[in-house]
Design a protein that fits this description.
This protein starts with a helix and ends in a 16-residue tail after the last helix. β1, α2 and β2 form a beta-alpha-beta unit. α6 packs parallel to α8. It has a single domain, classed as Spore Coat Polysaccharide Biosynthesis Protein SpsA, Chain A (Alpha-Beta Complex). It is an alpha/beta fold.
Length: 222
């Protein structure tokens, strides 16, 4: 899947300035796996995450970036061809915006029906967003102590509380591939329990109704 993800990055109508894969220190990298990547995409860098999990890995990427804009992609997801060009153009047009989101769609990788395309929805996951580099200076990096299923909501809640400015392009920029190993599938009950606890904490602390980064509607706890 990682080769598909990288291909979607290098197939962008706006070429990337720098591409890096972040891997947790505890994970071994099979030689054939890295050789296949290095052969197909010779300028891809490998960064090691001394911590554990997506929030920590995302922060490693942020710390190493050198471009005025930064975007992220899970290894099992895909960008649509014009995502980066359209989002960077939006950021250059509106200097008030700290980040630009887009639309996404969820696709089941098992038994996918190519004759039916699932509906798209507004999405503000990191993988659907392009940020100014200054955004993480102004609003902080993801909290590496947050659980896997809540770090995204915590970051956006804190950023909105501090006044982050965002805009959205009307473009399907991200395909989220849902498979059997997805943590929201394998740990569904725990994931929702952890997320509801996080949302209750946010609401109690700030009196806000946070908006799900991958949903059209606000999320409230029962």
């Amino acid at each position: 899947m990682v080769l598909d993800a990288l291909n979607s990055i290098y197939s962008q109508t706006l070429a990337p300035n720098r591409v890096a894969i972040v891997v947790d220190d505890r994970d071994e990298i099979p030689h054939p796996w890295w050789r296949a990547i290095a052969t197909a995409f010779r300028d891809v860098e490998l960064l090691r995450n001394p911590g554990d999990g997506m929030a920590s890995a995302t922060t490693v990427g942020i710390r190493h970036m050198t471009s005025p804009y930064v975007a992220f992609l899970d290894t099992d997801d895909l960008w649509m061809p014009e995502k980066q060009e359209r989002q960077v153009s939006a950021l250059e047009t509106d200097d008030r915006a700290d980040a630009v989101t887009c639309s996404a769609r969820n696709v089941l990788t098992a038994g996918r029906d190519h004759t039916h395309q699932p509906p798209a929805f507004p999405c503000a996951t990191f993988t659907a967003t392009t940020f100014r580099a200054t955004t993480f200076r102004d609003f902080g990096v993801p909290d590496s102590t947050a659980p896997h299923h809540t770090w995204l909501y915590r970051w956006w809640s804190n950023a909105h509380h501090q006044g982050i400015q965002t805009s959205r392009i009307d473009y399907l920029g991200l395909e989220r591939r849902i498979h059997g190993d997805n943590s929201w599938c394998t740990d569904n009950a725990v994931a929702h329990q952890t997320l509801l606890k996080e949302l209750r904490t946010i609401i109690a602390a700030k009196g806000q109704v946070p908006v799900r980064p991958d949903s059209k509607t606000p999320t409230t706890s029962p």
